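Why do we bother with a discrete structure alphabet at all? Because it lets us treat a fold like text: something you can write down, compare, and reason about line by line. To make this less abstract, here is a complete entry for Large ribosomal subunit protein uL24. Read it the way you would read a sentence in a foreign language you are learning: slowly, and without expecting to understand everything at once.
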Amino acid sequence: MGKMNVRKGDKVVVITGKDAGKRGKIIEAIPDKNKVIVEGVNVVKRHSRPTRKLPQGGIQEKEAPIDSSNVMLLCARCHKPTRVGRRILDDGTKVRVCKKCGEALQ
């Protein structure tokens, strides 16, 4: 399995699927399964029985994971979806860079 180019907290845009074009922030990254959970994307409904914790029960909406290959990172400077490159700085630290404008991504 390849390395994921996105991390928790990154702003991304969905490029394929039913939520294509939606933008959001990554809530959770699951590298073992190569999946990410993006806020407001791939929202599913879960039916739950009444429990002590949730005496009402009912239908809850929550975000489900999507494959990390279906999202692209949004560059903070050029505000466009971009591929991620890596560059080693003079002091030896690795940084992710925008392939479109060359800006370092945090």
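What the structure line is telling us, in plain words: The longest strand covers residues 23-30. The chain has no helices and eleven strands.
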